[in-house]
Design goal:
This is CAAX prenyl protease 2/Lysostaphin resistance protein A-like domain-containing protein. It comes from Listeria fleischmannii subsp. fleischmannii. Pfam families: Rce1-like (PF02517). Keywords: Membrane, Transmembrane, Transmembrane helix. GO terms for molecular function: endopeptidase activity. There is one protein chain. This protein has nine helices and no strands. It has helices at about 10-25, 35-55, 60, 70-95, 115-140, 150-165, 170, 175-195, 200-220. The protein has one domain. It has about 220 residues and is an all-alpha fold. It is about 75% helix and about 0% strand. The N and C termini lie far apart (about 40 Å).
Length: about 220
């Protein structure tokens, strides 16, 4: 975890600004609603924070990519099954206990070309970057006052809530993503931290991608 941290506090502010700018490009509806513009927005969503991170600290960015192992990949796949199972149960409970119906994810209700799917998985990597950026910034701040374990727990929870809240524009509701996406995000973050001996964003991206793939496939038949 230490290799991921910046040497200067102001760098976290710059990185979070870049993340916010990237998020703005993908969520802003004022751009032309064309297929090519969607691809551009997805690319910028990932590229802006990634390039910024590399400029701020190449060492920190490269530390995100710990070498994958078969054991780590197995943990990522197993994590997907466990996280999806927990999410499914939570979703059923939520659905039957309320009359609320959120707007479905557009991916499950539209026809997407093959390159669109590639860019969707590319976008999921950007969502990992977004979450980890907040995770590190919050951890760096909280760890000034608390120990490692407490700091990582607080940072994981807060970054998961931010991740879930960022899906407001997708589902047209804040309650829905906060209740149904916070738990999966905590699972992805756990995989990021624990699947390999050191934090690995590829591990959490694999889990995130598999989780969303299952959700999209099942959602397209419902």
């Amino acid at each position: 975890m230490e290799k991921l941290l910046f040497d200067k506090g102001y760098k976290y502010i710059i990185l979070l600004f870049a993340v916010a700018l990237g998020f703005f490009t993908i969520s802003y509806t004022g751009f032309p609603q064309t297929e090519s513009m969607t691809l551009v927005k997805q690319f910028l969503f990932v590229a802006i924070p990634v390039v910024t991170w590399l400029i701020l600290s190449k060492k920190s960015f490269l530390a995100l990519f710990h070498t994958l192992t078969l054991k780590g990949i197995f943990k990522a796949v197993l994590g997907t099954i466990i996280i999806y199972g927990a999410s499914f149960i939570l979703g059923v409970i939520y659905q039957f206990s309320t009359n609320f119906s959120a707007r479905p994810n557009p991916i499950t209700t539209s026809s997407i070309p093959w390159y669109g799917w590639i860019m969707n998985y590319f976008q999921l990597f950007g969502e990992e970057i977004l979450t980890v950026a907040f995770l590190l910034a919050i951890f760096a701040l909280v760890s000034k006052f608390l120990g490692y374990r407490a700091s990582i727990i607080i940072a994981s929870i807060l970054s998961a809530l931010i991740f879930a809240a960022a899906h407001y524009w997708t589902y047209g509701s804040l309650i829905h993503p906060l209740l149904l996406l916070t738990i999966p995000r905590l699972g992805f973050t756990f995989i990021f931290l624990k699947a390999e001996k050191k934090p690995s964003i590829v591990s959490s991206w694999i889990t995130h991608s598999l989780f969303d793939s299952i959700s999209f496939i099942i959602g397209s038949f419902l």
